[in-house]
């Protein structure tokens, strides 16, 4: 029987997709983001094993909240695509039984063709782009960003709906050229329904301390509203530049 390793679940999520949502956090991640507020999800062998039926039984009591709100089921992590067969079956059954809206929250560290079965039963992808600059991405996460950018292009080329999210950490994400380049990249994509900047926060520091790990961003403040507004402005300028370039090529 197919089982997944589950870190935790949330029955009334309101930020991981449209409407009110059941959010399932999968165990395991290959990235080690310096700002991660759930480093306890990294361990691939941690968490609690659950079957698809067990997860569905957790969802069912709350269906009357999810469907009228335009919500549904979101699977996050950790990194959900590391357990793609389990998530695929979960999404397939949620659609078959209740026609429930499905959202996949991913860092993009996988290949679209390899997880196509999962993406075929996914209504919306929340794609986290950690950093547009490859060297800075490696320093921030421990991995290069080529897979993430390729995933974004795959979703764009295959007509998939996505929201792009970008955590903003002062001192890491406040280079104007990087932000403009991120905007240009987003502007080159099809299917981006929403772009969100997620302000960095320190709420996960205690988890690093519980694990006995040094927190790499100790002392780094959350960004101000002015910094976030400035970042949005620069990114949107980059998006407009990409749109103008597309028009030139078309004409």
TrEMBL record:
What is the residue range of the signal peptide feature? Answer: none
Work out whether the entry's keyword set contains Nucleotidyltransferase. no
| Catalytic reactions on record | glycyl-[formate C-acetyltransferase] + reduced [flavodoxin] + S-adenosyl-L-methionine = glycin-2-yl radical-[formate C-acetyltransferase] + semiquinone [flavodoxin] + 5'-deoxyadenosine + L-methionine + H(+)
Q: Identify the residues that the record assigns to the Radical SAM core domain, covering every copy.
A: 15-240
List where in the cell it is found: Cytoplasm
Query: Pfam families given for it?
Result: Radical_SAM
- Cofactor(s) the record lists: [4Fe-4S] cluster
Report the EC number(s), separated by commas if there are several: 1.97.1.4
Q: How is the cofactor bound?
A: Binds 1 [4Fe-4S] cluster. The cluster is coordinated with 3 cysteines and an exchangeable S-adenosyl-L-methionine.
> Which keywords, in A-to-Z order, does the entry hold?
4Fe-4S, Cytoplasm, Iron, Iron-sulfur, Lyase, Metal-binding, Oxidoreductase, Pyruvate, S-adenosyl-L-methionine
| GO CC term, one of those recorded | cytoplasm
Q: Which InterPro entries match?
A: Aldolase_TIM, Organic_radical-activating, Organic_radical_activase, PFL1_activating, Radical_activat_CS, rSAM, rSAM_sf
What is this protein's function per UniProt? Activation of pyruvate formate-lyase under anaerobic conditions by generation of an organic free radical, using S-adenosylmethionine and reduced flavodoxin as cosubstrates to produce 5'-deoxy-adenosine.
Question: By its UniProt entry, which PANTHER family does this protein fall under?
Answer: PYRUVATE FORMATE-LYASE 1-ACTIVATING ENZYME (PTHR30352:SF5), PYRUVATE FORMATE-LYASE-ACTIVATING ENZYME (PTHR30352)
Family in the record:
Belongs to the organic radical-activating enzymes family.
* Protein name per the record: Pyruvate formate-lyase-activating enzyme
Species source reads: Paenibacillus macerans (Bacillus macerans)
Q: What is the lineage of its organism?
A: Bacteria, Bacillati, Bacillota, Bacilli, Bacillales
